Amino acid sequence: MEKKGAILILSGPSGCGKSTLLKNVYKNISDYYFSISTTTREPRDGEKDGVDYFFVSKNEFEEDIKNGQFLEWAEVHGNYYGTSLKPIKKALNKGKLVIFDIDVQGHEIVRKKLNDLVTSVFITTPSLKILEQRLNNRDTDSNAVISKRLDNARLEIKSFQKYDYFIVNDDLEKASSELVSIANITRIKSKLYDNESIINNWIH
Amino acid sequence: MEKKGAILILSGPSGCGKSTLLKNVYKNISDYYFSISTTTREPRDGEKDGVDYFFVSKNEFEEDIKNGQFLEWAEVHGNYYGTSLKPIKKALNKGKLVIFDIDVQGHEIVRKKLNDLVTSVFITTPSLKILEQRLNNRDTDSNAVISKRLDNARLEIKSFQKYDYFIVNDDLEKASSELVSIANITRIKSKLYDNESIINNWIH
Questions:
Q1: Residue B53 covered by a domain
Q2: Which of A4, A70, B36, B118 is deepest in the core (most CB within 10 A)?
Q3: In-domain check, residue A139
């Protein structure tokens, strides 16, 4: 049965709990590839190059844009973020579930380019106030950065209906189980199957 | 948080195992309403009126068509099949997951009318040959009826890509778990949420 890989896109404001949710998903699914974004922003405490992001200079990033090396890229909070095309193609060809943690702009671009492969989820905290508390509590960002993140969250929430699913992360266990279910069924989207070969194999 | 009910549509040839799969789903989900179709065909051995179908006469069915009582209806294998509108509306207003077991034509009509609410799954056996074996083994239909069902299956499989998901029922446990996952996440489709109230509640 001919089948392609699939793409699962997660978006949602920094502080909504995406990373914790993803850790739970990884325990419960197999054969996935997590797309590591490339960025020009400074690493936070504990972040590692090649694990959390590929950290590059503005010059390097702009060079890659020129050479068409990005599936999508954008400037957010004054820094570049992008997804390199090569590893994604490789993983899809192996039939893997490729997981993206990207923003609303990135989601729109990937959807436009690879619509049939994409399932997408928007994740939020129950409210902006709770997001603010979480960002203050995690103590990794300056007040100015937190304030930028909140402004951005206010804008991004308006796009949630462009996503297939909407998860309000107020109960970690419930939200994790929803995300695991989505990850699992992302692989049986009918659009992922090769129409003609299915019908031919089925009838004969 | 304002939310509507949701619709899960299952289609697939008679003999693909839908009823057995559904029994497994019911054990694992809550707050659903299974839509009982109305038909003019004769009950099979063991089938009960009001449980498997509402069995009515051709005259009664045609009267209901005239009065706009059906969400969808069609003539298949020389008999009428349809879905009454009233109980569906009631269940959706209560926020329930409404499950339909309808054919390809019915799916197209319901999707056209209630697109935002619908998640759909096409279920098949691994091949037409295996479908034929299952229909012969269950020993409920005459050869003429089986032959009609196989002709119909040959046509219906061609529409599988109009559905959101495609399940090949060759491993009952795997297929059940996929269907349960779909049923669960059908309730968190972003389109089911009232856009404005979410955004207002979230920001304030």
A1: no
A2: B118
A3: yes
Would you say residue A13 has pLDDT above 70? yes
Residue in B with minimal Cα distance to A163:
B190
Chain B: residues touching A (Cβ < 8 Å): 1, 122, 124, 126-128, 154, 157-158, 160-168, 177-178, 181-182, 184-185, 188-191, 193, 195, 198-199, 201-204
The structure tokens listed for A53 are 């992001």
pLDDT over 60 (residue B2): no
Domain count, chain A: 1
Residue B148 resides in a domain = yes
What is the rounded distance in angstroms from the CA atom of residue A104 to the CA atom of residue A81?
12
Residue numbers of the domain that contains A154 = 6-35+96-203
List CB contacts (< 8 A) between A177 and chain B: 184
Name the residue facing A160 among B182, B198, B204 (closest C-beta). Answer: B198
Q: What confidence category does residue A170 fall into, taking pLDDT thresholds of 50, 70 and 90?
A: very high
What's chain A's average pLDDT?
92
Q: pLDDT tens-digit profile of A60-117?
A: 999 999 999 999 998 887 899 999 998 999 999 999 999 999 989 899 999 999 999 9
The enclosing domain of B119 has a CATH number of 3.40.50.300
Residue A100 lies in a domain: yes
- Is the confidence metric ipTM above 0.90 for this complex? no
SS3 at position A84:
strand
DSSP states along B120-157: EEEEE-S-HHHHHHHHHHH--S-HHHHHHHHHHHHHHG
- Tell me the whole-structure pTM to 2 decimals: 0.89
